[in-house]
Amino acid sequence: MNQERIVIERPIVVLDKVHKSFGSLKVLDGVSFTVERGDVLVLIGRSGSGKSTALRCIDRFEKIDSGEIRVCDHRVDAADVDLRALRQDVGIVFQSYNLFPHLTIEQNITLAPVSVKGMKKPAARELAKAMLAKVGLSEKLDAYPEQLSGGQQQRAAIARSLAMQPKVMLFDEVTSALDPELTGEVLKVIERLAADGMTMVMVTHEMGFARGIADQVVFMHAGRVHEAGSASILSGPATPELAQFVGTGL
Amino acid sequence: MGGTLNANHLLFLGQGALWTIGLSAIALIGGGLVGFLIALARVSPRKAVRLLSGAYVQLVQGTPLLVIMFLGYFGLSALGLRITPLWAAGASLTIYVGAYFGEIWRGCIQAVPRPQWEAAEGLGLSRTQRMLKVILPQAMRIATPPTVGFMVQIIKNTSLASVVGFVELARSGQIINNSLFEPFLIYAIIALIYFALCFPISLLSRRLERRMGVGRAKLMPA
């Protein structure tokens, strides 16, 4: 008899009734959402709505007070979560790039594969080249971060994250420090990643971009998921808050 | 006794100056090692380690070096330990310089922007790897000007070793003055030698500060 194996594809990221306060300030008030493999979830909302905190909780840069967060096989909210294993599965890119200024772009990219995964230097160098080619920066291998424009630095930071071959990428307002032209080149890289099937969670203020790339849009308001759905909610919001938000954003 | 300043006197002063340099080197190396450990302890994730190292720094910074010297020399010999002036002076300076370097370098480690820690953390680097490969190399760049600047303080402070009978530059000047009784001339010469030792270092420190200042401005993304 043939045993039929049913493979249930589990979501990559699950947030379930997540609560988080900074002192007396409630930042996350029961936030839940799920991200399936290969999906792009875009978090939008006003400053202070909790979207960046929600993102940072996924990589456990913030500890939550209650609720549950699962990423791949990691129970992120557990006290004994293996942070190094979690962070190998999760890549994060920040608004301020945060490249290491004392290292070349190549060294920035090879540092983690070599010291965390024990990759050999020549292999890591090839990997760095491949990742830089992906973000269109092949010629900047030996440059130092300060010699790059903001957009190039941000693309290099994306390459650095990708080199760890994460299962999910987090983007925290990665274009907020860039002018429109440089924003475009970074967004193009992210679009290509999405097309390649990378699972992503991103906080962004680029509504046009969100509309084009998002499989799921989560609008946060006062620490809660106020409205969620496909990208179409941006054109036809159900709540006055989202209507007002996209109205001012256009 | 008496007489005038001659070549032998100058030779004696020269010897004293060499001991000043030697003692400074001991203080720099010993204090550097202690200071490095203290700086790391001051930013330790363990609270007890932070408190203990903080107490060390407060205690030493609140005690005059002169008193540390006396304690090192007379205190330890009162306990029955035979200790030479060189050891007493070297150990006292190590304790003293270690506290100051520890505090200077703690500040430099903490001056590395917080997001650098997060970026390294996000890549899965362990705490030790983050410290060694990301934070310390950047902290060292920040630390160079104040460290070189503090070396001037070390050189001048070695003069206090004369109180435990260590014959360095200041003490050798005193000895010559006791026989010649030409205080103005002799202390002027000594001041000049100290200046000749310290001035190039001050100059270097200022130049480093200017260069690093420009470098750091460029290091910071918007």
TrEMBL record, chain A:
PROSITE patterns in the cross-refs: ABC_TRANSPORTER_1, ABC_TRANSPORTER_2
Origin organism lineage: Bacteria, Pseudomonadati, Pseudomonadota, Alphaproteobacteria, Hyphomicrobiales
Name of the protein in question: Polar amino acid transport system ATP-binding protein
Recorded topology in the membrane: Peripheral membrane protein
SUPFAM superfamilies associated with the record: P-loop containing nucleoside triphosphate hydrolases
Xref: Pfam families: ABC_tran
Family: Belongs to the ABC transporter superfamily.
Species whose genome carries this gene: Bosea robiniae
GO molecular function: ATP binding
Domain ABC transporter stretches: 13-247
UniProtKB/TrEMBL annotation, chain B:
UniProt keywords, alphabetically: Cell membrane, Membrane, Transmembrane, Transmembrane helix, Transport
Residue ranges annotated for the ABC transmembrane type-1 domain, each copy included: 17-205
CDD domains linked: TM_PBP2
Keyword S-adenosyl-L-methionine tagged: no
Membrane topology summary: Multi-pass membrane protein
InterPro entries to which the protein is assigned, alphabetical: AA_ABC_transptr_permease_3TM (IPR010065), ArtM/GltK/GlnP/TcyL/YhdX-like (IPR043429), MetI-like (IPR000515), MetI-like_sf (IPR035906)
Protein known as: Polar amino acid transport system permease protein
